[in-house]
Design goal:
Number of helices: 17
Number of domains: 2
Order of helices and strands: EHEHEHEHHEHHEHHEEHHHHHEHEEHH
Shape: elongated
Mean pLDDT: 91
CATH topology of the largest domain: Rossmann fold
Oligomer: single chain
Helix content: 25-40%
CATH class of the largest domain: Alpha Beta
């Protein structure tokens, strides 16, 4: 059967996860982002939701009548929803039966929650030895931090990331847009793909215990390893590099108008000096090496800044690119969205609540496979009946009995 009911028509080459069923117990962002990536690859992702514990309750700006906001609509598109009361005996039995026929179960609760609900890996593995079970808590399910509450800011701070972002003298600086959630979701996605591939060989499932803290630490691995070897704390470089120079963003003629420039080698340095028309930079032998340019970075920045302030960022970009130099104007978010050239990552989805909606998708093509087109995010419990019929062959009479037993919420 197709694992993508309600989606676009099948192609000659099915999507990579067309046959995969994912039971999604996740909430907020890290988990839902992982399962959205799996849905983008063709999996049938069923979100287990509850009116008693709505997702993203801290969001105050809703854009639909059923109290969904833009982040939810984007992160949970292409999925289906079943509303189960996991503290109700009948509801818990439904969840167990769904897990018994699922390929993947994903949860991002605090350690111990799924065990208390009797939906942990040890319980489900007995029913479904082929299950790929993902636990993606903040600090993992083992060790002294397993019970810590985690949020994106805390994880960035504890991993050391905030002290290597920004410049010297700045307060600890976070990367915006819930970095840890997206990095955690991405790591969980490729862990699932690896586990599915392994299962093709040995027929056995896996328990993936993912620590979002460790995902963040892994992303600054070279800095951590360098510090371990040298015994020194890395300097905070801001927009500069510890390898090449000059590198930075330079103010241009317009209001809040900037261009990013990086010079990687001596040939590029000579080309930059020519574009700037600076006899001073051309003649200064101290600047012939990257080490020399790093030492006199401040002086170079002043020369570059004096030149860039004469032109718009688009003109600076044009002139430097014409000389073969890596330079791009710094764009605001609205300018990225309004990019006239087509890019893979953007798509317009027909969101049935609000009409056409710009959404992001996988930033690559996969020829000759046609990946599914994004579909509108589900309403709470929208697919209760269809999911139970398709996954468990539940009849109409059986479904009505489950409703009488208050299995759904």
């Amino acid at each position: 059967m197709s694992a993508n009911p309600g989606g676009s028509s099948r192609t000659a080459v099915p999507a990579p996860l067309d046959h995969i069923r994912v039971l999604d117990f996740t909430h907020v962002l890290a988990g839902p982002f992982c399962t959205r990536l799996l849905a983008d690859l063709g999996a049938d992702v069923v979100r287990v939701e509850s009116s008693k514990h709505p997702d993203h309750p801290w969001q105050s700006t809703y854009i639909s009548d059923d109290q969904r906001h833009a982040s939810y609509l984007n992160t949970n598109r292409s999925k289906r929803s079943i509303s189960i009361d996991l503290k109700n005996d009948a509801g818990q039995q439904i969840a167990l039966k769904l897990a018994a026929v699922a390929d993947v179960v994903i949860e991002n609760f605090s350690a111990g929650v799924m065990g208390r609900l009797k939906l942990d890996f040890a319980t489900i593995e007995k029913l479904n030895p082929r299950i790929v079970y993902v636990s993606m808590s903040g600090y993992g399910h083992n060790g002294p931090r397993r019970d810590w509450t985690s949020m994106n800011m805390n994880l960035q701070g504890y991993s050391g990331l905030m002290t290597v972002t920004g410049g010297e003298g700045d307060p600890p600086t976070a990367i915006s847009n819930s970095w840890n959630d997206y990095i955690g979701g991405l790591h969980a996605c490729f862990a699932v793909l690896q586990a599915i591939d392994k299962r093709l060989g040995n027929g056995r499932g896996s328990h993936i215990d993912l620590s979002q803290f460790e995902c963040s630490a892994a992303m600054i691995g070279p800095l951590l390893l360098s510090s371990a070897v040298s015994g020194k704390v890395p300097h905070r470089l801001g927009n500069r590099s510890d390898i090449v120079a000059p590198q930075g963003v330079y103010r241009c003629a317009g209001a809040d108008d900037w261009c990013a420039v990086i010079i990687e080698n001596g040939e590029q340095w000579k080309a930059l000096a020519e574009v700037l028309g600076s006899d001073k930079l051309r003649a200064d032998t101290r600047l012939s090496s990257a080490a020399g340019r790093m030492e006199y970075h401040d002086e170079i920045d002043r020369e570059i800044g004096t030149w860039t302030k004469q032109y718009s960022s688009a003109e600076v970009e044009r002139r430097l690119k014409a000389a073969g130099l890596p330079a791009e104007r710094v764009r605001r978010i609205d300018q990225v969205i309004d990019e006239p050239d087509p890019v893979t990552v953007f798509s317009h989805m027909e969101e049935r609540r609000i009409g056409p909606m710009l959404t992001t998708r996988l930033p690559f093509t996969l020829a000759p496979v046609s990946l599914p087109e994004p579909r509108s995010a589900p309403t709470l419990g929208e697919h209760n009946r269809d999911i139970l019929r398709q996954w468990l062959n539940v009849s109409g009479e059986q479904f009505d009995e489950l409703e009488r037993r208050q299995a759904f919420t």
